[in-house]
């Protein structure tokens, strides 16, 4: 997982795609790091909402990051989308967990999840994340959507790295210690609905 969030745990403001606060952390340094990260990726994995927002923005954007975002293979996990039209996109409409496990086994490089809080929650429960990379912005947003919302589940993490950014933000990296549910349960059972 690669995500940006505020110190108070928000990854989105009060309205969908309210991301103006990204400017408090995103500078030339983080852009270079984003490019390096994209260059290590085999594919990007999105839930429906994040895919639609990313496609609307990046499909017509220009620059180094846009070039990579448009070229890289994209996987979309959704039970409601009928087709995906953004360049190099593939739709998974069935057994997300099985398909993602198989893709991970075949992958020679990293598969990243950007945004996609609902899908990320399901992947975390299924034990499918190797690492969580989170850039924490030096900002208390006060309202908006939490990256990790309320849950009765507890997930223990092992720190794998930390990096201070010139913007005042910090990137923290953690590895989940173990799956918190059996692999026989399906991602599609996520109570949040369509990832």
Key words describing this protein structure:
alpha/beta; 195 residues; four-stranded parallel sheet; globular; 10 strands; Dihydrofolate Reductase, subunit A; 26% strand; four-stranded mixed sheet; 26% helix
How are the elements arranged and paired?
Layout: E1 2-6, E2 10-12, H1 28-39, E3 41-47, H2 48-58, H3 64-71, E4 74-77, E5 89-92, H4 96-106, E6 110-113, H5 117-125, E7 132-137, E8 145-146, E9 157-164, E10 170-176
Parallel strand pairs: 1-7, 3-4, 3-6, 4-5
Antiparallel strand pairs: 2-8, 7-10, 9-10
Notes on the structure:
- With 195 residues, the chain is α/β, with parallel strands linked by helices.
- It has one domain (2-189): Dihydrofolate Reductase, subunit A, CATH 3.40.430.
- Helix content is 26%, strand content 26%.
- It is built from 5 helices and 10 strands; from the N terminus they run ββαβααββαβαββββ.
- It has helices spanning 28-39, 48-58, 64-71, 96-106, 117-125, and strands at residues 2-6, 10-12, 41-47, 74-77, 89-92, 110-113, 132-137, 145-146, 157-164, 170-176.
- The longest helix has 12 residues, at 28-39.
- It starts with a strand and ends in a 19-residue tail after the last strand.
């Amino acid at each position: 997982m690669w995500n940006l969030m505020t110190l108070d745990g928000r990854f989105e403001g009060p309205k969908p795609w309210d991301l103006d606060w990204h400017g408090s952390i995103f500078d030339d340094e983080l852009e270079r790091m984003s490019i390096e990260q994209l260059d290590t990726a085999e594919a990007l994995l999105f839930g429906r909402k994040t895919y639609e927002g990313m496609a609307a923005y990046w499909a017509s954007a220009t620059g180094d990051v846009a070039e990579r975002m448009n070229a890289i293979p994209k996987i979309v996990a959704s039970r409601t989308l009928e087709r995906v039209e953004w360049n190099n996109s593939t739709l998974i409409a069935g057994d997300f967990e099985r398909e993602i496990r198989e893709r991970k086994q075949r992958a020679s490089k990293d598969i990243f999840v950007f945004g996609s809080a609902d899908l990320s929650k399901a992947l975390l429960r299924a034990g499918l994340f190797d690492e969580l990379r989170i850039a924490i912005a030096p900002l208390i947003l006060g309202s908006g959507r939490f990256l990790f919302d309320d849950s009765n589940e507890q997930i223990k993490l092992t720190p794998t790295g930390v990096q201070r950014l010139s913007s005042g933000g910090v990137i923290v990296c953690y590895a989940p210690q173990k799956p918190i549910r059996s692999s026989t349960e399906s991602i599609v059972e996520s109570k949040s609905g369509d990832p």
